[in-house]
Amino acid sequence: MTRPPRIVAFGGGHGLYATLTALRGTTENLTAIVTVADDGGSSGRLRSELGIVPPGDLRMALSALCAGNEWGRTWRDVLQTRFVTRGPLDGHALGNLLIATLWERTGDVVAGLDWVGELLQAEGRVLPLSSEPLQVSATVRTEYGTVEAVGQVAVATAEGVVEDLRLFPKDPAVPAETVAAIDEADLVVLGPGSWYTSVLTHFMVAPVREALMRAADRAVVVLNVGHEDEETAGMARIDDVAALRRAAPAFVPEWVLVDVDHANDAGLAEAVADWGAALKVAKVRDQGTRDAHDTALLRRELVAIARDRGLDVNATEPTVAG
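The structure assignment produced for this chain is given below.
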């Protein structure tokens, strides 16, 4: 019997949540690799107080993969619950505290996440980009000159165009499981999400960048929809392509998936062709929003791409987890 296809999705926050919702149930071997540079909110506070990897985006990914039954949905909702108090617990997500506790108990970032996955009966695995917290910083060009933005929140909310992205530490520790998942993947999905702090950061960690280079001929880049993302306000999808090419000049994915609303963006088709990738145009935007993907439509297109590669993925939508 042949093994189920191995699919790996990259990102962080709401963008990765959408990708994982789209991919859940397509295969028994689904893995999320999550950026760990968040320094805001509950994650930022725990990171600062405990010196741990920020757990929020990891929690979101685990929640997206919860079993589509009462058990999975219940525990997902528990993980996502935020305290509203007048004390120090205010704003903390219970899932962040649970993950932090399991990390302290196990002494291992990956093992702690696997325990939470077991609790959720997760239909996939969640791995961190790095086993130590990352700090992202950037040079941002504004109408008044350039400024330095330090930290994920600062970069994501800076007014202007990100010109140079940096990561500290420069050579962070990467779990062996993370690199192995990329090397063993039959399909790699990058994006959508905050382009600089959730997507490009993966190319700034050497072992992951090198693994992505090896997996380029199995990779699909999913471009964002709309222009509402604060991090890339005023930029077009061709700018996202250019930014990725600057970050990883030797990386050439097999496909670039773009919503039909952006199909005629000036220069986009030519830029993707010059990159050496195939442009796939489809309706993937949630018609009720300006800047979010419809997970059912995204699933349809990712399944089609997987099947074009000869992968035996399941097209039937799973039991709704939300």
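Interim note for the steering committee: Residues 1-35+129-309 form a domain with the Rossmann fold fold (CATH 3.40.50.10680). The mean pLDDT is 93.
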